[in-house]
Amino acid sequence: MFDHVALEEIIVDRKSELKNNSVGSVAVAMIRNEGDIIAAWLSHVSACFDKVLVVDHQSTDGTFEILSDLATSSDKLWLYRFNNPGYYQAEVTNTIAWIAASCFPSAWIMPLDVDEFLFTGENETFLDVMADIGEDRIGYFPWKSCIPYDVTQDMEQDLNNPFMMAPTCSQYLKICFHAGAILNEGLQISQGNHEVRSPEGKQLSHDRYVSAGEMFHMPLRSLSQFVLKLLQGTIAYQSLPDSRRDPLQGFHWFRMARAIADFGHVSEGHLRDVALHYGEPEYGIIEDTSIYRMVDYGWSCGILPVNNKPLDVTAKRTKTHEENARDMLVEVSNSRQKEVFTAALTKKRRQVGGRKVSNSLSAESARFESLQGDSARRPSLDFPVSDIEFITDFIKPAFQSVENPVPSTWADNIPFIFCLLNYIRPRRFVELGTYYGNCFFAVCQFAKSFGIDMDCIAVDLWKGDEHTGDYGQGVFMDFREILKRDYPNQGRFIRKDFNSAVTQFEKGSIDLLHIDGLHTFEAVQNDYKTWRSMLSSCGVIMFHDTQVKERDFGVWRLWKQLCDEYPSFELKHGCGLGLIYVGESDDSSAAILFKRIAGLSIQIFLKEFFSKIGKLSPITES
Fold this sequence. Notes:
By secondary structure, this protein is an alpha/beta fold.
């Protein structure tokens, strides 16, 4: 369509597909260096579209190899290459859309970027969404911004991981149209794929546009990817000849670059702030923003409600965003920007919002004595006479909303922990291995909401291990900030290794212990043996990941041994959560609970119930 756009077709044997009227939906895209998200995006578009036509634009990080791998094994993906440097998105997208329209004249065509995902239900396709639009209309999809919960790690994106999602859509949208719009009218896609124009470049009447639903937009995914995105945008625009420069295009790259130069560094807080204000015309990066401030703005945390299916792709990303960015730094002419970008890639950070958190939250200098008072904390121990009455009473707290959006494989077990806490009413809860704080914040929330006098203590180094990987200071800072903000009277922390922290506790000083640190057999066995004597006469121990048998996880081995020694109960969803009763008391609320759930019928019901409610329970309440 554009003579100066020369696309190299990688998979050439497509003659049998020409003029194929059975193809109803086609996605077209131009991609460059998106190795962290390309697999997730391909799994999504493969589930939603009949065909996917992709142009790779000089990728150097393994993106092209991943695309080529899938294109070779599947006739759904058509792959092309464009090797000219510069900002030619509109020309390339129009060319690939013209190819799609020529080959599939009955199809709906949607230009997509690799960071865009349609709202779809299970097995729902793009064609289902477009069914009622009308071939003479242009469908549009407003953007709803989203970012990964953890933006500190340059990792491959997984659509089953938690994301932060904006409460409303932005002013920007993406368009879709019928092939006839190109073949019969010669309509062209504008730069950015935000609208369709006449062959003369005139805007179409607003009457032709029809809302077709919403879509997620994930342009920011990690600190390194953010830096690379800025570099690619500014350098690509600067490489254009003066005759092709449009003052309304590319301005946001330079604005963001100037703003971070004013700061002298780039932090994950800056990235979140960009996400909050993405697309606002007068916006510049002005402050560090924590996850909890995003929640105050109405953002929520959860799994993206998008369709996807597993793909058989063996190729992997070969170059990180950081490595690509460092290679591109030589092209940055502004020495100040080069200094800032370099600092960003070394992950130089400052404290979120410049705020300091009081040391009063810490329990490092405290001494935890044996518990006093009645070990049976529940208001009434007159449990119902029938199983149905017991179950009805036990599961009541399961429907509580979760206050804080903290990602974890623990999320599915939050409804159960609310029910457990309500029934046994522990006086002191200690958690070994807190990470982001999913379980710990839920316990603090329960104590606060129900007015329970419960001492909640988190023990962790907040550095990571061989299973979680290393995580930066930002994880601990975020944990400490939300603890101070929401649970200053319920929660405390000890920032020590487990073997050192145990010396601050006397024997019999813990009612409920949660072991969730390093998950090798040797590590979890050591945690159990080291802390076992700290449990009270009504003590309960929880083990997470009892169902995980990969990556040298060994919790399941210890769990199998302890089940033969103590009364036990296990939920197998959410990676597995096992509980044992180690207390000597026969009439504590915990002892009574384990007696009640020993029955097979009750166990079957509770396991099925919490498995279902765990997947449905709300992550956050805005």
